[in-house]
Specification:
By secondary structure, the protein is an alpha/beta fold. Helix content is 47%, strand content 12%. It contains 15 helices and twelve strands. Helix 1 runs antiparallel to helix 4, helix 2 packs across helix 3 and helix 3 packs antiparallel against helix 4. The protein is flat and about 85 Å long. It starts with a helix and ends in a 5-residue tail after the last helix.
Amino acid sequence: MAHKQSRVGITIALDVVLINLSFVLSYIVRYQLQIPYPVEEQYYAPFYPYIPFAALLTLLCLMTYRIEGLYEIRRGRRWLDEVYRLISGTMVSIVLIMAITFFLQPLVYSRGMLVLAGFLIVASLSLERLIQHVIEAGRRRKGIGVDRVLIIGAGELGRAVMRSILADPSLGYRIVGYLDDDPNKGNGSLGRFKGLGSLDKLSDVLSAEKVDEVIVTLPWMYHRKIMQIVDECERHRVRVRVVPDVFQQRLHYLDLESLNGIPLIGPGPARMSSSAFILKRVIDLSVVIITLPLWSLLFLIIGVLIKLDSRGPVLYKQIRVGRNGQEFYIYKFRSMILGADEMKAELEALNEADGPLFKIKDDPRLTRLGRLLRRTSLDELPQVINVLRGEMSLVGPRPGTPDEVAKYEPWQRARISVRPGMTGLWQVSGRSNLPFDEMCLLDIFYIENWSLDLDIRILLQTIPNVILGHGAY
């Protein structure tokens, strides 16, 4: 709590400094540099009459920022959300200043200077917030300021919490494991998340794992058990949160309203609606068509290199499972020697992937050029053909082969409810370094939380991941 209060205090102090620096800079631009047009001599004014304006603007900005919730420490708040709030609060403050000057009619006053001050305030405070986010992300990557979380229950609600934490490291949570009375779950694992036993081991686990927070995801039929868990956490002075078991599988598709402060919760529409599918399709086609000259040039260069490197066709096609289980041929640049598929059974013992996947880091079937294509993911480029044909999207879950999909557990089959993608959330979160269960958790999180903003962020994060080859093999 003390850390949060000091962080808020530092942020407010920085805001005060930057607001006033922006105001001074706007004065220099308008009166000293005389931008955008010269100031007539009779309208020239020194800075000191503007000092009350600067003080009032600072006070108004701090008030509106607090109303906008900018001084509340919330997990997972994104930088763009803070920028929107900064714009809103600053605009309100500038308008209020203009209204005040309209009634008071001061002798020294410049609307243009105030508008410029508003732009500079938004720009400087947005940069300040961006630096804070970068610093905080770096601290959390080093394990500083990260809370150790224990999940109670490994059902659908528990997996929803796990995939939300896994998909957004900025939340500052690290899952130490989970408890479940089902022996198959409590003693099993979901990727790197380990089952730590049944619920009666809660006290021991809280002490042994140095848990900071417990998230309870049990159905409400276990109300008495949930209250016992809450009491146990309070005895250990561990924060506890309970996920409401509302409409069970439709947890992410809720319609929230307020009736004079009384929360009303009802089922809402799925995030991936028909209009969302249409929008994604329009974006896919637009991006592919606009960048067609680039694809064509890369196709030509890589195709020639493959022919010079080894015998065989330039393209490789394989049956994959798409949306709603429909099968299609996926296209890739050939990165292996001829007859590689027939050698798969012989190499089964070398498989390094878990679940139904088959991956070998140093696959002996790869050609010299194929290793480079795999490391940079350039072998995936021909899938723009699948995007044009409507079988795939630019962003989405990776399509599995029929034999892999046949081994999916029931909860994992949600991956095939949308068009598969050339890139996706799991690719920018670790790619082949992630266990299969975590890959599924990330893909399902993407499906449940789809937005245009999420697609753009994944596409932008794909570029450095491809260049650096993180987790690709």
